[in-house]
Amino acid sequence: MQQRDPAAIRSDAIKMAIKKAQSGCFQCMDGYFELARHHGASEEEIHAALEQATRTQGKNHSRRDLIKLLTGTGIAAAAGGLRLGIQEPLTSYAQSLKHGKKIKHTKQVPSIPVWWGTDSSTQACCAMPQNFYIGRMGYGAEPAGDAYFFNINAAKAAGHDHTYGYWGVVGPDSISSSLSPFDWGRRQAICAWNAWNHGPNEAYIGGLTIFGDVEPGFGGWHSGNYTPNQNVIAGFLQELFNITPRQVWPGIYISPYYWTSLVGQNFRPTTDFVLWITGCGTCGGNLCSPCNSSCDTPATVSDRLATSVLNVTLGGRRPVAWQYWISNCQCGDYNVMTQYNNSLTPVNSNTIYSGY
Which of 29-33, 86-90, 321-325 comes out lowest in average pLDDT? Predict the structure, then answer.
């Protein structure tokens, strides 16, 4: 059979992506851009096509700005942005994020605005700020979640709009019906969104990004079971993307170790997601404990974040949040975040995987 020229496929895919964006189907747009990349399209080629479609050559618009011009939606950046991946170099964080305090570093590292928070049972102590909080809503196929590992005082301190929820995702080995792994992921996403709206702690959760917590402790996962594991995550992300408001992306909480073990380094989900990472030097090296008032925790964490953690890539996405301290190390579960929006935005990378 005669095969089509990859260059022709690439060109047609980019053209179709632009048409889908103009019609408002951003998921369709992302799918066609992904097809173009698969056949050799570079980010520069995609950006150039967007510039041509919007007639903004030479104006240094970001990809996000170009999509807004293309669609004419006028969705405000404060609402979380358009539903598309945004390619931003690390050095542009200070320009693209406008709120929160900048950290004064003890080393020569980029000045990146960051916000501080906790998750699960932990409320910030010892003069650490409570800019945000991420509490558990439930796990698996619980219809409306549960009230475990949720600190109401931490949520109140962070505020309604900056309290987010996470959902324990159960792996494919625990499917108790005839569901496929993909549909098993979809069912869990539906339960997570239902818990966000109707769960025991829904009154405190206003942050729109929901994180799927992927780790063996929730059951159903085993190492090397790549395809079924990938399908559960793909189903969870796609369904959560579909059922949440337009400006909202789903999130994933995971460590590089579990990513490699459970889904493999070559897995790149087609649905965009916000990465909340753990295990990248968490509690290690020269990091100061949040409970240790005798040293500068924000300075040590910010240095590590800027010099190494933000360069980690899992599934083609870089971290937006980092769990730099966990309860196993005593003191509690502490996190740092590079965004301060009601709906968090993915940070994409051309690299599929780059470990810590």
Answer: 86-90
* Per-position DSSP letters for 181-238, written without gaps between them: HHHHHHHHHHHHHHHHHHSTTGGG-----EEEE--GGGSS--TT-HHHHHHHHHHHHH
Residue 346 falls in which region: left (phi positive, over 0), alpha (psi -120 to 50) or beta: beta
The whole-number average pLDDT for the span 100-124 is 69
Terminal CA-CA length for the chain? 44
Tokens standing for residue 163? 């309290």
Domains contained in the chain, number: 2
Answer yes or no: are the C-beta atoms of 121 and 146 closer than 8 Å.
no
Which domain CATH number covers 252? 3.20.20
Q: Is 314 within the bounds of a domain?
A: yes
> In terms of domains, do 301 and 350 share one?
yes
Q: For the whole model, what pTM was predicted?
A: 0.71
Last residue of a domain, one of 74, 99, 128: 74
pLDDT value for 239: 97
Backbone dihedral region for residue 72 (phi beyond 0: left; psi -120 to 50: alpha; all else: beta): left
What are the pLDDT digits (tens) for 175-214? 978 899 999 999 999 999 999 999 999 999 999 999 999 9
